[in-house]
Amino acid sequence: MAFNLEVAGGVVKSGRLAYFASEDKPTLARKALAAVWGTPLDGRSGEAAAAALAEDLRPMSSPQASAKMRLHLQRVLTRRALEIAAKRVGAAT
User: Fold this and answer.
1) Mean pLDDT taken over the chain
2) Are 34 and 50 in contact (CB under 8 A)?
3) What is the pTM of this model?
């Protein structure tokens, strides 16, 4: 996962959430970003984005991980990344 968020006054103004190794190509998570766009960057942000990931990603299964496991791991990474971002901008988590 890689991401870039523009946050002003603790609120997500724009950004991108990109996911790797779930599908055969990198994927932008537009629904996950929409779930946090215009909202305060806080503990609920990660949950909202993680919940929306199933609409963005269609993970593939492989000998290394099932599709279900890949989606789970991307959700975990999303929650953690947004939690860290909230702390860095000084927003309450």
Assistant:
1) 93
2) no
3) 0.88
